[in-house]
Amino acid sequence: MSDSCIIVGASHAGVSLALQLRREGWTAPIKLIGEESELPYHRPPLSKEHLAGKKDLDAMRLRPAKLYADNDIDLLLSTRVNSIDTAAREVQLQSGESLGYQKLALCTGASVREFNPARGLENVFYIRTAADIARLAPHVRKGRRALVIGGGYIGLEAAAVLAQQEVSVSVLEMAERILQRVTSPAMSDYMQRLHESHGVEVHSGVEVESIREEGQEKLICCADGTEFRADFLIVGIGVEANASLALNAGIETGAGIQVNEYCRTSDEHVYAAGDCTVHPSLIYQRSISLESVQNANDQARAAAANICGKEQVYNAVPWFWSDQYSIKLQMAGLNTDYDQVVMRGSAEGGIEASFALFYLKEGVLIAADCVARPKEFMVSKKLIKEGTKIAAEHLQNEEIEPISFVTA
Ligand SMILES: Cc1cc2nc3c(=O)[nH]c(=O)nc-3n(C[C@H](O)[C@H](O)[C@H](O)COP(=O)(O)OP(=O)(O)OC[C@H]3O[C@@H](n4cnc5c(N)ncnc54)[C@H](O)[C@@H]3O)c2cc1C
Q1: CB 31 within 8 A of CB 68
Q2: Scanning 55, 180, 280, 402, which has its CA 20 to 30 A from the CA of 5?
Q3: What distance in Å separates the CA atoms of residue 158 and residue 171, rounded to the nearest whole number?
Q4: How far is the CA of 142 from the centre of ligand 1 (A)?
Q5: Counting beta carbons within 10 angstroms of the beta carbon of residue 128, is it exposed (0 to 12), middle (13 to 18) or buried (19 or more)?
Q6: Residue of the nearest CA to atom 53 in ligand 1?
Q7: If you take atom 26 of ligand 1, which residue's CA is the nearest one?
Q8: pLDDT tens digits, the chain, 408 residues: what are they?
């Protein structure tokens, strides 16, 4: 057995974990293994500034190359781990080589869900990696027609970028409203109006049945008989955790790799962090999976501490952001199971709007969605963590400064 820590997946979680291991005092070798060829980069700009051509990959690096060397982290890019032998404590690489470990951390992230009607067709794009944007970017040209399948955050961010490049964009969403899985009707309504005011057509409750290629054009036929024509498609219908490596090694998995509050899997020498995990949330009293940079970084830091022998419970308030046109949406907590929504400010005015939606359950703040309301966002994170009861009148009252909610 080697004394190394091997980390599989060199993105937000893997990089944070590797660097935190050194801060926690891990002195043995660290191997950070990733199958992508690029030096690790920030993923969120892919559907924002990078797709818009405003930020190149070199400006998106998570850390400079030198930092890995300075911390004695052996970064192996373009390297895929094919399997794990937990009994021998070894991983097998695609190249056939085996590497031993003392501790293993799985930071394998998630992969896009494929859209069956579009399988095998040309000019159908997904947005998960820098390579995906390299393929898509040449098609983003004035006057072209794009169809975005899926009205979630990534599809809508892409729609916003395309609309600003004078691409004609339609968004097709199967659910009754865009962002249905992640936000309330009030926020969905605001986002729909925002997109429509920028010329994007939004169609909800639409199910694509088939897609035909007619020359360079695609004909999209929906179950209700509606048809759309487009030059290219962007699919954003969610992701699936990359859990097969763990599953095939006999490690417990569900909707992702199951970890406990210490980020440990069912194998005591194997930890996991980031999009690939399902973890217990003490705040929400249930198992959750998250797809956010905050979760990838914070969970990875907790995992690193625990690999180094600490007993650090991971119990962070989830938060997330999305940039569309010139608005920044910031979300704290998980807004499921709420019984009351309180609005502070006004959702009128498109890109000029400034408001927060607070989600309460039995009077306790469990989540907040904020547009141009950074103070409300910051305070909400604190209140959610503390499980604070707060009166709707206080939240609504613009004369009360958000900081006072903490003592209200
Ligand atoms: C377009 C886009 C926009 C986003 N915008 C936001 C945002 O605005 N705010 C926000 O909070 N979050 C956003 N996210 C989500 C955020 O990027 C993810 O939550 C984050 O990347 C998760 O990090 P991770 O390290 O867990 O996984 P990933 O970033 O998915 O990285 C996992 C890595 O592991 C590698 N890997 C997997 N299996 C193997 C293997 N067997 N061998 C070797 N390597 C392997 C993968 O190739 C990948 O590089 C966005 C995501 C995307 C795609």
Answers
A1: no
A2: 280
A3: 10
A4: 30
A5: middle
A6: 128
A7: 274
A8: 689 999 999 999 999 999 999 999 999 999 999 999 999 999 999 999 999 999 999 999 999 999 999 999 999 999 999 999 999 999 999 999 999 999 999 999 999 999 999 999 999 999 999 999 999 999 999 999 999 999 999 999 999 999 999 999 999 999 999 999 999 999 999 999 999 999 999 999 999 999 999 988 999 999 999 999 999 999 999 999 999 999 999 999 999 999 999 999 999 999 999 999 999 999 999 999 999 999 999 999 999 999 999 999 999 999 999 999 999 999 999 988 999 999 999 999 999 999 999 999 999 999 999 999 999 999 999 999 999 899 999 999 999 988 888 765
Backbone torsions φ then ψ of 299, nearest 5 degrees: -65, -35
**8 A C-beta contact, residue 25 and residue 308:** yes
Task: Indicate the domain borders of the chain.
Answer: 5-111+241-307, 114-235, 326-406
Residue of the CA atom closest to atom 23 of ligand 1: 12
Q: How many angstroms separate the alpha carbon of residue 257 from the centre of ligand 1?
A: 15
Instruction: Please name the residue whose Cα sits nearest to atom 3 of ligand 1.
Output: 44
407: which 2 tokens? 């003592």
CATH topology of domain 326-406: Enolase-like; domain 1 (3.30.390)
Fold classification of 5-111+241-307 (topology level): FAD/NAD(P)-binding domain (3.50.50)
Q: Which atom of ligand 1 is nearest to the CA of 322?
A: 8
Ligand 1 centroid from CA 165, angstroms: 26
Ligand 1 interacting residues, C-beta cut-off 6 A: 8-9, 11-14, 33-36, 43-44, 46-47, 80-81, 107-110, 127-128, 154, 242, 245, 274-275, 291-294, 296, 320-322
Distance 363 CA to ligand 1 centre (A): 35
Superfamily assignment of 114-235 in CATH?
FAD/NAD(P)-binding domain (3.50.50.60)
